[in-house]
Structures are given as structure tokens and as C-alpha cells.
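Batch job 17 of 40 flagged for manual review because the log was empty.
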Amino acid sequence: MDSIHICGGCPLNGETRIQGSKNAVLPVLAATVLVDGVSTLYNCPDIADVHCMIRLLRSTGCKVKWQNGEIRVDARRIACTSLPQAYVQTMRSSVVMMGALLGRMGEVHISYPGGCVIGKRPIDMHLQAFARMGVTLEEACDGLTACAKHLAGAVITLAFPSVGATENCILAAVLAKGETLIRNAAREPEIDALCDFLRCAGGDICREADGSLRIRGRERLCRCAWRVPPDRIVAGTYLLGCMAAGGRIRLADVDTTQLDAVLAVIEQMGGKYESSGDGIILAAPERVKAIPYIRTEVYPGYPTDLQSQLLAALALAEGESIVEETIFENRFRVVPELVRMGAHINIEENHVTIKGVARLHGSHVKAEELRGGAALCMAALAAQGDSCITNRHFIDRGYQALEQDIRNLGGRI
């Protein structure tokens, strides 16, 4: 069944536990290729993108077992460095397999990554960084072939603090000969999670005072066990869903230090929150306040992955809000569907103007990408009447048990 049905219009009241992080587990799964042994990952989310990454790992010769949130990857016998096109074009995150296979095997063939409709996201920075490390690149109509007899450490300055490019540089550098310095590296918590896993396996990585990453190449990495941290984007989604629908919720297994920018916006909208053990309690106002202006930014700024969910909440705000998107040019694909539910949102190039309405109404809407689909579910919780959200396969890429979480929080789904 590729649709979700929600009966909205009731404030939320309940508690749920946040799943393991999608954006952390995917590069860490790629990193297991570098380990000459067995890696054990705990708290892995059961989502479509993880299934896809596991298929990619198996295609290289890795043995993978997955049970009850625990994934064991045996990468002792890597037999293939050509990644199947069908898997690569399903998921954009597959691009990090380049750095992992280059680091372990010195070669990789990959078709051009897909899986995303929110922006172009070229991989030029990834390729330029590889070239600095001694990688030879050949482009063809079916993809890219990258080879390096000996990966060498280098000073790499990224033109933009890209998460994917930073991850690929780390993965290629951890077994390279010599020292690598990545300047203007991304600072997202998922980058630190990848570094933490690699250190657990014996890697030598440190974050400099200016944010650069210094990596001293090792000869090999060893077996290790590591726990995937909670998903800050899923937590933010449910917090903004509560702001839209109203009520009071508690989220368990949340690192609130990773949500500073989001919580600052929630306070500005009139929400009240408090830390509670390993989680957070949020009480929504009777009606949210508008945000005069906000823009998405790289971490620690407001995350683009929570921009669509913010639009859903601001659609019901008292007053007018402006949201500027600075990361992905197609992140406003959710707007026509929110308008179908009664929102007043106008797109002007890379920003939107939202004039808050008193209520949204249930409607038949379509998810066109992961976070936009989640935003439609949050809007449906706030809307009067029934909503049907189709193309749920997009949502399944990043949300492990959306229906159960919403039921736990008091929603009708």
C-alpha cells in the first residue's frame, strides 16, 4: 500500500522513541568496507535507504546480517569494485561508496548517483578531492571509473562545506599513506558520527579548532562495535508536527544539543520545551507565531532537511513568514500540495512567503520527496478532516515506523 491515511484536527498527546539516524548510518555502513574484519552496528533504522546500502555492500562481496536493529558486516573478502547501476541510481548516498572502495581497493566504478529530486548536487568537489589524493578519473556515458595505485594524503580545501564530499574525503583518507587535512569540512553531527566509528575501528582523526579535519592514514582498521546515534531530523519532524497540530509530546532518545537552531525557532514560534532525561518535552501554543525571516544553512544553522516541515507549521501561524532556501534549489516541491490543503504560500525564486491561515483542511496529496512527504503528514495531523498522502515510498526512505510513532504521539493514522 503506497499511501498513508490521516484523520487530523486533534492536538497530539503522547510519547515515542526516536530511531537511529539515517544520515549517520549510511556513511558508516559504507565505512565498514574499510574494516578488515566484522563491524557491528546497533540501533540501525529499518528504512528503505539502509536496505539499499546493504544491497550495495553485498554486491561488493561483504557478508551482511541484520536482525532487531543490529547489522553485522563482514568485509574481509571484497570481490567486486563495480557498483550495480540499479542500486546506485536509487539512492544519492551511494556516492560515499566511492571513497570507501578507493580506500580499501584502490578502484571503483560507479554510475552517476540518483535518488533525489530536490537539487542537482553535482559531485565535482568529490572528484577534485580524489584527484588531489592521486586518483585517476575516467568519465563515460555509463558512469565513472576511479583508480589509484597508492592513495596519498593531501591538503583539501572544499569550496563549500558539503556533507557528502567531506564524508568521501574522510573515507578515502583513513587508509591513505600520509596525512590529509580537510579544510572547510562540514560540521554536521553525522560527520562526527562517521569519525567516531572510524576511531572506534582504529582510525586517527581529529577535528581542529578551526573546524578542519586532520586524518593520519593507518595501515588497517580492525573490527569494532558501535551504536548509531538518534535521528535529529526525525525528532525535528515530530516537534514541528506538534507545533502544527498543537498539544504536548515527549520524545525519548534525543540529543537536544544537535537541535539548537530548531529549538530556537520553536521558541520564537511560541513553543515551550524542556529536557527530560534522555529526551525532550514540547508544549505547543494555541496558535504558532509567524517567523518574519529565516534561512536554511549548513550546520549549526537551521537544517534544510527540516525546511518543509517548518512550512507546514508556519502555514497555520498568526502573521506572515518568509523562509529562504540556500542549500537545494528544488526544496519547495511540497508547496503546491500544502496549498491544496488550504495553505497560502507564494514561491519567489529561492524563498517563500507564508501568510498563516486559521486552519488547513484534509486533502488528497502526493509526496514528491522524503522530507516533503513527512511535512505533508505533519500538515495532515493539523488539518481538519481526512487526508491521504500517496507515494509513501519516499517517506519510507527515512522514517522507520511513521505510523506507529504518530499513534504513540496521539495521532489518528
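Reviewer: the log was empty due to a logging misconfiguration, but the result itself is present. The mean pLDDT is 95. Unflagging and moving on to job 18.
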